[in-house]
From TrEMBL:
This is UDP-glucose 6-dehydrogenase. It comes from Sulfuriroseicoccus oceanibius. It is an enzyme of class 1 (oxidoreductase). Belongs to the UDP-glucose/GDP-mannose dehydrogenase family. GO terms for biological process: glycosaminoglycan biosynthetic process; UDP-glucuronate biosynthetic process. The lineage of its organism: Bacteria, Pseudomonadati, Verrucomicrobiota, Verrucomicrobiia, Verrucomicrobiales. Pfam families: UDPG_MGDP_dh, UDPG_MGDP_dh_C, UDPG_MGDP_dh_N.
Length: 464
């Protein structure tokens, strides 16, 4: 295949936070292409076909509703979809390995491998395979090897097309991306496959924003982009600790340095720590790669971004305990927010998980409110970090509102920057709390001076 394929049918394996929204946008922008989004998880597919989508993203309901049943289909029929597709996105999860070689650092590629085997078994003609999942560099080669060894009639081109959308703004990011990155083999066949995918995106993305590279540059760029972003947060968080000692204000420092056009203002918000499915996983992956290629100094450099993030989370919970007179045993602490950032129901690696774990282990009673995260997710996340059901049943209460979570509390901690927390009725909250009434703002979103004027004792990240 040296001429580009006119893509008419797309199959996406994996209907998660990346696959679902990305395919919905492609379907919405390319009415002539039929898009099947497949998953082995039946309840997840049922949810995509219902009015309550499994992924909460502002604006996503409308995009899905506009295309679903026309040229967008959510299905568990992975085999048939693979057979019918010209182009197959692989968008399965790649969590950090929790066992064996590379545990805690390398990406677990078991889902990628099973997807590749499924493609090999069901492909009956030439296919373009597109890696969408974030994967370690040179995964394309593994996919290619599996395909070649398991397929008699398949002719495959493997591309890398990492997704840069951020959760909470997925629809905006997909609608007007800063760039689309497509990596392919530098051969006539590879170039034709790249051009086929370029033409899909060119339906709505200006050509100059579609970058093409070799496979390995594309794979590596995704890890590096996330490592640079996370590094900025760890850098400002490191400075937040220094600000607290010196009386400088971290937001003022961020504004001052961010006005330098070489530094830029974005991603300089000090916080209780970054979370999300990507940053930590991708850095650990990068660290593993560097070690693997005999570059321990480079590995150590990037690993410090994660170390700083862990320290920031721990520093925050320690601060709560110290402030509450060195003990939180039996005290009620209102926790506002559990998602790793606002406007998402995703909690993967959320700082809130670790702060809540630390407080529960100190014997605190937590009253928690998050507008979007279901109770089952909160319980599963806490179980995962070693908190037993017994402790959860005894010490954790899930509340229906922020005000309820702060009732009879000794302290209130803001862990996610949900907009509704900025405009709470703090007079009522103050009246209902034990005195002194402590507020720990892990996101620096509250009006601190106003709160102090009402009588609260306020701790804010990076504010002396
Ligand atoms: C990130 C990348 O931004 C995206 O390009 C990539 O595709 C996936 O990983 P995401 O994890 O969805 O996206 O969210 P992001 O907005 O990057 O935030 C990550 C974490 O950093 C959140 O916990 C957020 O609260 C925190 N953060 C972000 C800060 O603490 N300070 C900031 O200034 C920015
Ligand atoms: P991401 O944030 O990368 O989208 P998620 O975990 O939200 O990750 O989604 C990945 C999805 O891929 C899950 O819903 C999972 O069930 C699905 N999945 C994993 N392996 C396969 C497979 N072989 N076939 C179909 N779906 C798969």
């Amino acid at each position: 295949m040296t001429t580009p394929t006119d893509v008419k049918r797309i199959c996406c394996i994996g209907a998660g936070y990346v696959g679902g929204p990305t395919m919905a946008m492609i379907a919405a922008k390319c009415p002539d292409i039929r898009v099947d989004v497949c998953d082995i998880n039946q309840p997840r597919i049922d949810a995509w076909n219902s009015d309550e989508l499994p992924v909460y993203e502002p604006g996503l309901d409308e995009v899905v509703a506009g295309a679903r049943g026309k040229n967008l289909f959510f299905t568990t029929a992975v085999e048939e979809s693979i057979a019918a597709a010209d182009l197959i996105f692989v968008s399965v999860g790649t969590p950090t390995k929790s066992y064996g070689i590379g545990a805690g650092r390398a990406a677990d590629l078991c889902y990628i491998e099973s997807a590749a085997r499924m493609i090999a078994e069901n492909a009956n003609g030439p296919k373009i395979i597109v890696e969408k999942s974030t994967i370690p560099v040179r995964t394309a080669e593994a996919i290619r090897t599996i395909l070649a060894a398991n397929s008699e009639n398949g002719q495959f081109q493997v591309l890398s097309n990492p997704e840069f959308l951020a959760e909470g703004t997925a629809v905006e990011d997909l609608e007007a991306p800063d760039r689309i990155l497509i990596g392919g083999e530098r051969t006539p066949e590879g170039d034709a496959a790249v051009e086929s995918l370029v033409r899909v995106y060119a339906n709505w993305v200006p050509r100059e924003r579609i970058l093409t590279t070799n496979l390995w540059s594309s794979e590596l760029s995704k890890l590096v982009a996330n490592a640079f972003l996370a590094q900025r947060i760890s850098s400002i968080n490191a400075i937040s600790a220094l600000c607290e000692e010196t009386g400088a204000d971290v937001d003022e420092v961020a504004r001052a340095i961010g006005s330098d056009s070489r530094i830029g203002p974005k991603f300089l918000k000090a916080s209780v720590g970054f979370g999300g499915s990507c940053f930590q996983k991708d850095i650990l992956n990068l660290v593993y790669l560097c070690d693997h290629f005999g570059l321990p100094e480079v590995a150590k450099y990037w690993n410090s971004v994660v170390t700083m993030n862990d320290w920031q989370k721990e520093r925050f919970s320690t601060r709560i305990v110290k402030t509450l007179f060195n003990t939180v045993r039996g005290k009620r602490i209102g926790v506002l927010g559990f998602a790793f950032k606002k406007d998402t129901n995703d909690t993967r690696e959320s700082a809130a998980i670790y702060v809540c774990r630390d407080l529960l282990l100190e014997g605190a009673n937590i009253a928690l409110y998050d507008p979007k995260v279901p109770v089952s997710t909160i319980r599963a996340d806490l179980n995962y970090v070693g908190i037993s059901d017994e402790v959860i049943d005894k010490q954790l209460t899930i509340c229906d509102s922020a005000v309820e979570a702060t009732k009879a509390a000794h302290g209130v901690a803001v862990l996610t920057e949900w907009d509704e927390f900025k405009t709470l009725d703090f007079d009522t909250i103050y009246d209902n709390m034990f005195k002194p009434a402590f507020v720990f703002d892990g996101r620096n979103i509250l009006p601190h001076d106003e709160l102090r004027a009402k009588g609260f004792e306020v701790y804010a990240i990076g504010k002396g």
